[in-house]
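[User] At your convenience, examine this fold.
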Amino acid sequence: MSGQLEHELELHVPASEAWELFGTLGIGKLVGEEMPELFQKVEIVEGDGGVGTILKLTFTPGIPGPASYNEKFTKIDNEKRIKEVEVVEGGYLDFGFTLFRVRFEVIEKGEDSSIIKSTIEYEAKEEANASLVSIDPLANIVQVAKNYLGRNKAAKDAK
């Protein structure tokens, strides 16, 4: 069994600014700081933000789904502005999934506008409960990023 979920959100910043956040460790640091309702902590296990970097995401107790998991940056394409991460330990793998991948794609829309397309791809054994997969947490992360980027832009514009 396999599936895919997608979400898109327009950001009112240039694609290059959005990519500075999503293409680096910045998004992990941001959600670790600004989303205590979802993440208890986000830790760098290995790496410097490039391909091969591993993060450990520990969720706030009481959140449905896995308590924690490790994800690995498997693709970072600075030209196309695509970043992919896969769960490599724990989390969805413990629930019968054989693949759980998240992709962020920053699409240039205009000079001061871009779209962040978030995709979850998964493969699971037949006995796995696919209803555990939801795009909502990813949509919330992107909304927090949009708010953060908007605040930064407003602060720059005010100077």
